[in-house]
Amino acid sequence: MRGQVAQALRNTAIGLTGAGATFGDVLRLTFYVTQWAPEKITEFMAGVEQVAVEIGLPVPMPPASLIGVDYLFEPDVLVEVEATAILD
Questions:
Q1: Which of 43, 27, 53 is nearest to 79 (CA)?
Q2: 24-59 burial code (b ≥16 CB/10 A, e <16)
Q3: Could you say which DSSP state residue 72 is in?
Q4: In terms of CB atoms within 10 Å, which of 15, 33, 38, 76 comes out highest?
Q5: What contacts 24+ positions apart, CB below 8 Å, involve 18-23?
Q6: C-alpha neighbours within 13 Å on the C-beta side of residue 35
Q7: Three-class DSSP category at 87
Q8: Which alpha helices (DSSP H) does 19-66 contain, by range?
Q9: What is the mean pLDDT of the segment spanning 43-56?
């Protein structure tokens, strides 16, 4: 979980950069996590903390939602991130 959260956020940073944006432009984040259970929050947040400085994730983070899902597009994928950003 930790590694996939970190990589999903790295991938989001790459996508933002491609659009000329940064996490400073993000209005909200939505995380989709397979088989979510509250006891997974420690491992989830460890993944966020692992890359926060590297990707320029501000503190406090943009508003975020975490949605538990049964599965994502591939069986081994545990986390997907959706970012909504506004550029002038």
A1: 43
A2: ebbeebebbbbebeeebeeebeebbebbbeebebee
A3: -
A4: 33
A5: 19/85, 19/87, 20/87, 21/85, 21/87, 22/56, 23/55, 23/56, 23/57, 23/58, 23/62, 23/83
A6: 5
A7: coil
A8: 41-55
A9: 97
Cβ atoms of 76 and 10 closer than 8 Å: no
Name the CA dihedral angle for 66, 69, 74, 77, rounded to a multiple of 10 degrees.
Answer: 40
Residue written as tokens 């692992």?
A: 50
Enumerate residues 6+ apart whose C-beta is below 8 A from 3: 47
Mean pLDDT of 68-87: 96
Q: How far apart are CA 4 and CA 44, in angstroms?
A: 9
Q: What six digits make up the tokens of 55? A: 């990707």
Helices 41-55, 2-18: inter-axial angle, 10-degree rounding: 40
